[in-house]
Design brief:
The protein is α+β, with helices and mostly antiparallel strands and 167 residues long. 34% of the residues lie in helices and 30% in strands. The chain has six helices and nine strands. Strands 4-3-2-1-5 form a five-stranded antiparallel beta sheet. The relative contact order is 0.10.
Length: 167
Amino acid sequence: MNDWQRKGPLDWETYVNKMVKVATVEKHEYEGWVLTVDPVSASIVLATSLENEKTSISVVLGHAVQEVEILKEGDNEMKERLSCIFAPEESKAYSPEELEKRKNDLKTWLETNHIPVTEQGESGRTLCVAGVLTIDPPYGPEECSSSNEIILSRVQGLIQGYLEKQQ
C-alpha cells in the first residue's frame, strides 16, 4: 500500500477542485482538475479541458499513484464548471432557484394528495416518497427511482399528470 492509499477521505477532499500533477509508479504524469477521489480504491478522477469546450475525463488508479502535486487552486467559476460536468442535461436548463421551486411545488402537491414525502441527502435535493422511491432534480417522472416497479410506475404516472396540469 502506497502513501496515497494510506490517506483518508478527509485528506483526499483537500485535492478536489484543484489542478494537480499526478506521478505514477510507471513514471507517467497526468495533469488535470480533481473531480473526486474514490474512497475505496483511492483512484483519482481528473478532468482536462480540451479545445471546443469538450472535457476529457481520466482515472488514475490509486495503487499506481506515487505523488500528487497541487499546481493551482480552483476559483468559484472553475468549481461551478467542474460540478456541472456530470450533471444531466435537463438539470442544466434550470437555475438553482427554479429547481428549488419545482421541488417545493411537487412536495406540496404530493403532501396535499396524502402521499408521504421527505427531503433527503446533504442538501435536501432529493425527495423520498414513502421511504421506497426517490425523485432527483429536475423532479420529473424520468428522475424517479425505486426497486418496487409497481410504486415506481404509479408515482411516475402521478407526476406526469401533475406536470401536464401545470402547463
